[in-house]
Amino acid sequence: MAKAASRSLSYILLGIGAIAMFFPLLWLILLSLADNPSAGSGVNELVNSGLSTTNYSDILYSDRYDLYFFNSLISSLAVAFGNCILCTLVAYAFARLQFPFKKALFVSVLIVMMVPAYVVMIPLYREIVVFGWINTYFALIVPFLVTPFGIFFLRQYISELPYELEEAARIDGASTFMIIRKVIFPLAKPALVVLFIYQFLTNWNSFLFPFIFTNTESLRTLPVALTFFQGKQSVDLGHLMAGAGLSALPVLLLFIVFQKKIISGLTAGAVKG
What is the CA 29 to chain-centroid distance, rounded? Predict the structure, then answer.
C-alpha cells in the first residue's frame, strides 16, 4: 500500500514537473502563431486573436534565415566533430601515456574549466584580429575545437576502458594512433555522442563570441540574427518566437534520434577518475 502511494506521489510530482517544463514551450508556440502579440498577452487572448503561420513564412522567405541557419550549422558541426576527434587524442594521452608534468598539465585543464569563457574574451579577440580571422569561419570554429570539458569527460571514460584490448592490439603491431582509431573510438562511442550533442548545443546557442568576431550579415549566426528582432523601443515577439522555435528544431531532433546513446553515455561515463 505504501509502495503504491509512493509511486502515485512520484507520478504526480513528475506530472507537475512536466507541465512546468512544457508551459514555456507552449507560450513560445502561441506567441509565434499570433499576429503582432504583446508581452502582456494572456493565453486566452492569444488563442482568441486567431493563430496563423505568417510569422514562420516571414522568417523563412522574407529574411535570410537560410543563410543564418547554414552558418550556425556549419560552425556547430565543425566544432562538435573537432572536439570528438581532438579531445579524444588529448584525453587518451592523459589516461594512458606517461610524459613529464602529466599531473600538472591535467590540473591546468581542470583550472581552465573553472574560468568563465568571458574572462578570455578580450585576449581571444586580439588573437583573432592578429590572425586576420575577423569575419571568417575560422573565428567561429578554431577557438572552440578543443575544450577542457571534452578532455576531462573523455579522459574519465577512457580510464575505465579495459587496457587488455589495447595490449592485444599493440602485440599485433598496432601503433598508438591505430589503437585510438580501431579500439578507443569504437569503445567510446556513447561518450562521444554525449560530447558531440553537448558541444553542438553549446555552439548552436552561442551568442557573444559570434557577435564580436563577425560584423557582416553573410556570417551572422542564428542567435545573433534573432537579436535584430529587438529594437530600442519595441520587440517583434511574433517573429522572434518563430525564429527561436525554428532554431530549436535541430537540437530537439538530435536529442530524439540519439536519446538512448545519450543516456547510456552519461551512465557509463559516471565513473571514478
Answer: 22
The grid coordinates listed for 266 are 552519461
Q: Give me the residue label for grid cell 571534452.
A: 150
- Give residue 222's Cα distance to chain centre: 14
Q: Which string of DSSP letters, residue by residue, matches 160-186?
A: TS-HHHHHHHHHTT--HHHHIIIIIHH
CA torsion 180-185-187-189 (nearest 10°) is 160
Query: CATH code for 61-268?
Result: 1.10.3720.10
Q: CB–CB of 195/84 below 8 Å?
A: yes
pLDDT tens track for 42-65: 666 666 666 777 778 877 776 788
The SS3 assignment for 34 reads: coil
| CA 99/CA 209 separation, integer angstroms | 34
Mean pLDDT of 206-211: 91
CA atoms within 13 A on the CB side of 133: 18
Structural domain boundaries in the chain: 1-52, 61-268
19: left (phi over 0), alpha (psi -120 to 50) or beta: alpha
Residues 6+ apart with CB under 8 A from 235: 39, 229
Cell readout for 206 is 552561442
pLDDT in tens, 118-165: 888 889 999 999 999 999 999 999 999 999 999 999 999 998 888 888
Q: Does residue 113 contact residue 54 with C-beta atoms inside 8 Å?
A: no
CA distance 98 to 189: 24
